[in-house]
Design brief:
- Helix content is 0%, strand content 54%.
- The protein is built from no helices and seven strands.
- A four-stranded antiparallel β-sheet has the order 1-7-2-5, with no helix packed on it. A three-stranded antiparallel β-sheet has the order 4-3-6, with no helix packed on it.
- 26% of the residues are buried.
- The mean pLDDT is 92.
Length: 90
């Protein structure tokens, strides 16, 4: 297991095939934040899930039990001022 910190929109965060996201939470900066997570080499296509957090707060921790599988890669689009996304992956 590994905790990945994402502080900017990013492509190909984890390239290991069949990575699973076990959990996630989002920390917003001074304004509301949104994190959209894709199973793709780039930030495109159909998203796997989205997290939202109000200004200066943290989203509820999402726990996915056995995990959300990613076949290609994990790519993230972050919106807001200085948001940080944490992904627990296996």
């Amino acid at each position: 297991m590994e905790l990945i910190r994402v502080a900017a929109s990013n492509d190909d965060i984890d390239l290991k095939p069949f990575t699973k996201v076990l959990g996630a939470f989002l920390v917003a900066g001074v304004d509301a934040a949104t994190a959209t997570i894709f199973d793709a080499a780039t930030q495109a296509g159909t998203d796997k899930f989205t997290l939202k957090a109000a200004a200066a707060s943290t989203s509820p921790y999402l726990w996915f039990g056995t995990g959300v599988p990613f076949k290609t890669a994990i790519s993230v689009t972050l919106a807001g001022t200085s948001p940080v996304l944490y992904l627990l992956v296996d």
